[in-house]
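Hi P.,

Sorry for the delay on this. The queue was packed all week, but I finally got your sequence through. Input first:
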Amino acid sequence: MLAFDVQEDAVRQTRELLAKEHFSAEVYLDSHANMAHYAEPETVDCIVFNFGRLPGGDPTKFTTAETSLPAVDAGLKLLKKGGLMALALYYGKENGYEERDAILAHLRELDDRTYTVLGCEWMNRKMIRRCRFSSGRSNELCLGARNAARNTSRMFVNARIAA
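Then the structure:
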């Protein structure tokens, strides 16, 4: 397992949580955009992104589309057949909606012979503006929103490459 973050606090928290839960991982103080330097194409079973900002952290430090879009593309290349990608998108407040909108637009442009994108809305969640689910043929992407109790909206994306 590999983990990346550009904030030292997030790296520390990740290492502490992994140790507490008796998991091991290589945790790097590096951008998710650089993940291709740490793994070969089509060798990764699962990729999990947490876009936005560190909960409880400095609200002025957050991810942006500038590095997140290349990271998603790099991740899709790293996934092996049958692999899974999950993206949590925290948006609103200080980090706004630009990253969320860019990622959603990017997902809409993926080759429809490889990816199928399905949209859905949470009809009874006032705190969450909207969510999307997408699933695929060769590659599968799913997006959704959860945790309406928080003020910061979340969106989740899952990608699976069919075996």
